[in-house]
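I have been asked to look over a protein record a colleague put together. Alongside the sequence sits a line of tokens, each denoting a local backbone shape. I have pasted the whole thing underneath without changing anything:
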Amino acid sequence: MARALRQMVSKKKKRFTEDDFNLDLSYITPQIIAMGVPADTLERLFRNNIDEVVRLLEERHAKKYCVYNLCVERTYDSAKFQGRVEQFPMRDHNPPPIHIIPSFCESVYNWLKKGTDYVAAIHCKAGKGRTGAMVCCYLLFESFHGLHGQQPKFLTAEEVMQLYGEKRTHDKKGVTIPSQRRYVFYYAHMLHKQLSLKPCRLLLTSVLVENGLPAIQSGCCMLFKCRQMANCQDGKSKYVTIGEAECGEPRRAQSSLGFCIRPPAPIPVCGDFKLVFYNRGKLLARLDKLFHCWLNTFFVVNQPPDTPGALRCPDRAGLCVTLTKGELDRACKDTQHRVFPEGFAITVYSALPTCIEFVDGVSGAVATASVASSASSSSSCSSITDDSDCCEFPYVPAAAPSASFGDSPAPARVNGSPAATVTASAPRPQQQRHRHGHRHHCRASNSPSPVPAAALHQSVPEEETAEIVTTAL
């Protein structure tokens, strides 16, 4: 019975069934193991029994294994593994914080280089998403540094994710969450271009929703909330709200090509940040989650001149990131286009703090101060972002073309990596704006028929609706 439950929970993941073992565990390489959490509670009935995991590691890799726990929601007695457990906690269904990736890769590399018979057993809860993202990042790291005298191979993000998918799952779908995949591309880009991560402060100015709206029977009243990771007086970290924006009135998918959501004041973000979009239901307290995505400010700004990326102007800078439906967490699952039109996309507009200016006359410095003061006055927590460590201009392209930052112009797209398409927000030529009718609008697309919101979205309490979540590097 327990074996059948474990098989059901594993879904399409490969299991280790050699000898008398039957574990949710796969060898990605001879030295890298990806597995589900070793459970020592009632979960052991349908997940990996911690005693069986210990037995496998002791029999096959005695004293030469190290366990890497990526769970923030699961703990166990590390003494069972002779104390050889490293903690790199991250939240489920989310990408790893960017500053954790290099230290994780170095830790695994330093352990494995002790000998060819040393192994690293890496796990989250299910042993697929978070585990896959970190395993892929390590494989990138190893391919650039070589191991045991091997020459560097300089693998790409696509290559390591393909390898992980083949070794971990039966359907070759390993890392599938768009934001997790994006962060693997981030790390690959950093390695290929030999970039050093530095905190980069930006001001989020608006979000353009393009090519139709989610099909909701009562009309779509879209909003997002902004939160920042902060250290509290009790020593714990929590999210505090620093801003929010809402479209203001319900809009019909059939009658609207898209619209711009602008916060009352620019929202300061630094490092990792999360955009979570909701629909406000007929009951004002009800918020139905639509989709979300993670981005990092360093990779919005710090693009080398020889790759598609962000451009900035010394006087007035506008940066934008366009994410298609397939690059948005949760929305990407709507393959039948029942809720989101096929061409659905968002463009996130931001600016460097010293270069921003709006039609209402609010400057970047004033906006930053006003938003920061409102956040600090509403919480006893302090931001983990140290302004003295933030770099407003972390990288200046040697020959970057100038671009002006207009009033939320339509994005000028370029072909980028699957992680995101990052472009300079220069206004389109006049004939293009006339062709589209308005520079905020894009071409019309076939909108799906509305369906009841209750059947499509999970309602969440008001206090849990985060969320641009930001963490400093």
About this structure: DSSP finds nine helices and 20 strands in the chain. Residues 304-317, 356-470 have pLDDT under 50 and may be disordered. The two ends are 46 Å apart (CA to CA). The longest helix spans residues 129-145.
